[in-house]
Amino acid sequence: MNTQGSKLVVTLGLAVAGALGTVVAGWSAWGWYTVAWAVLLLGVAAWSVRERGFGAGSAGSDTMIESYLESRARFGDTVIPVWTRHIENSRAQMEEAVSDLATRFSSIVDKLDNAVHSSDLAGGAGGSAMTDVFAHSERQLGSVVASMKSAMASKHAMLAQIKDLERFTRELRGMAEGVASIAAQTNLLALNAAIEAARAGPAGRGFAVVAQEVRMLSGRSAETGKEISHRVNLISSAILAASQAAEQSSEAEDKSMQSAEGMIEAVLSEFRQMTDALAASSALLKQESIGIQGEVGEALVQLQFQDRVSQVMSHVRQNMERLPPLLRENRDLYVAAGQLAPLDPEPLMRELQKTYAMAEEHAVHSGARLAAPAAAAEDDITFF
Amino acid sequence: MAKTIMVVDDSASLRQVVGIALKGAGYDVIEARDGVDALSKCTGPKINLVVCDVNMPNMDGITFVKQFKQLANYKFTPVIMLTTESQESKKEEGKAAGAKAWVVKPFKPEVLLGAVAKLVLP
Questions:
Q1: Per-residue pLDDT reduced to its tens digit, A173-218
Q2: pLDDT (tens digit, 9 = 90+) per residue, A278-332?
Q3: What was the ipTM of the complex prediction?
Q4: Domain count, chain A
Q5: Reported confidence tier of residue A126, pLDDT bands at 50, 70, 90
Q6: What are the pLDDT digits (tens) for B71-86?
Q7: For A284, A380, B11, B100, which has the most beta carbons within 10 A of its beta carbon?
């Protein structure tokens, strides 16, 4: 039997002996009053046994209480670690998942930034880079078209000069015909002169020689006139052929030129449409990007709640882990000193409160139900 | 050249969140999981500012700031405490340790970036 048990037996013995003594000593003098007093003492003794006996009044009760306390300690040893493991596992999984989410989120943000940056490079900030390329290309192609037009103008000028040559050959032909006509008239004149010289007889012989020479010269002039006319015709034909060829070439080049100009204009137009579309797309992407950045800011605030929840879960887990040793200490105290101390929640609650970092933890501890706290505003920053 | 900011927090997700905000604003970010890890990384490139949590295992934020300020190269490097703690007594501890600002989580990225822009060393 333990010390506490011995104390109980002594108390009970004293109470019973006192009661019996009182009955024996006071029966005659006090009668029923004495009996009543003895019954009261016995009641006190019985109450004492009842009060203490539940814990250690008997070997059976001791065993029962020890067994109960042991089972309570075992309950704590068994249940609390499982609960805390679940809490820790959930907290760790949440931490990992949110961390992974944040990583993916970061990757999305990076990709968005890259897309906007690339779009800026292609379309330029406000589409200027693409517009610059377009303007440069337009200038270059405009210069090519101007150069081709200039070449065409030179060709037209050359064609006009060739046509002028044709006019000159017509004049030359006229002049050749003039020479032939003069030669024919000179020949006729020389013939008349020969007739007159013959009529003059011997005095006209000299003149007849001159007339003969003049006829010969007119003959040669006529031949030369024919030759000039023939050559002029040849040149005229050549010039005409060259002029026609140049004209045909010029017409073909004009058509080519118009076609090239049309094609360049079409290409530039398509290019312009493309750059306009790209600039519009770039502007839209930029606008969307601003919107997404706002959403990103909100999401970054929401992601931080994992940290707060994780902290609260850690604090509760640590506090729960303190319960099994407390139950065991409580049991050990009974086993060692027979002291059946009540479980006091206050030390555990004080320990929990000491771990609190957030105002909301204190509020919830006091029984408040709180909404998630708002993100810190600019004037919530404390500068030292 | 981008400025370098060290983010010290035992929560990986919080480091990510702060990192996203800072990288988005053009800063380079070095991450550390607690005070000990942070001190071991104070030998690399120049750190222009530190954003530090308070409650961390191994070495808490206040102790880290005290030791960080003892390092000759980082004596003048500003530290922003970013924490769920909002008690005035804790803020006083941070101030005494050498922190330059105290921001309570959850924070809006623009609020943190405003504080960083105000304090970051050139």
A1: 888 888 889 989 999 999 999 999 999 988 898 989 999 999 899 8
A2: 888 888 888 888 888 888 888 888 888 888 898 899 999 999 999 999 999 999 9
A3: 0.90
A4: 2
A5: low
A6: 999 999 999 999 988 8
A7: B11
Task: Spell out which chain A residues touch chain B, with contact meaning CB-CB distance below 8 angstroms.
Answer: 95-96, 98-99, 101-103, 105-106, 109-110, 113, 293, 296-297, 300-301, 303-308, 310-311, 357-359, 373, 375-378, 380-384
Domain holding B107, by residue range, is 4-119
Nearest CB partner across the interface for B111, out of A101, A305, A381: A381
pLDDT tens-digit series, residues B10-44: 998 899 899 989 998 999 999 999 999 999 999 87
* Alpha-carbon span A15 to A36, nearest angstrom: 14
Is B59 a residue whose pLDDT tops 80?
A: yes
The secondary structure of A30-95 as a DSSP string is: HTHHHHHHHHHHHHHHHHHHHHHIIIIISHHHHHHHHHHHHHHHHHHHHHHHHHHHHHHHHHHHHH
Statement: residue A153 has pLDDT above 70: yes
Q: How close, in Å, is residue B114 to chain A by CA atoms?
A: 8
Do A145 and A267 lie in one domain? The reply is yes
CB proximity B89 to A under 8 Å: no
Residues in chain B closer than 8 A to A314 (CB atoms): none
Q: Which domain holds residue A44?
A: 1-54
Please, are residues A356 and A315 in contact by the beta-carbon 8 Å criterion? yes
Residue A213 forms part of a structural domain: no
- H helix count then E strand count, chain B: 5, 5
Cβ of B114 within 8 Å of Cβ of A378? The answer is yes
Residues A145 and A239 placed together within one structural domain of the fold:
yes
CATH for B111? 3.40.50.2300
Q: What are the CA-CA distances from residue A237 to residues A166, A175, A249, B95 (Å)?
A: 9, 17, 18, 108
Strands (E), chain A: 382-383
Peptide bond into B57 cis (omega under 30): no
Question: What's the number of domains chain B is made of?
Answer: 1
Identify the DSSP state of A376: B
On whether residue A86 sits in a domain, the answer given is: no
Q: Provide the 10 A C-beta neighbour count for residue B67.
A: 16
List all residues of chain B from 16 to 55 with a beta carbon under 8 Å from chain A: 16-17, 19-21, 23-24, 54-55
- Using the predicted structure, report yes or no on whether residue A47 has a pLDDT greater than 80: no
Which H or E element spans position A153? helix A128-200
Structural domain includes residue A119: no
Residue ending a domain, among A246, A264, A280, is A280
Does pTM surpass 0.80? no
Note whether residue A67 is domain-resident: no
Q: What is the CATH number of the domain that holds A254?
A: 1.10.287.950
- Phi-psi bin for A126: left (phi > 0), alpha (psi -120 to 50), beta? left
pLDDT at A33: 40
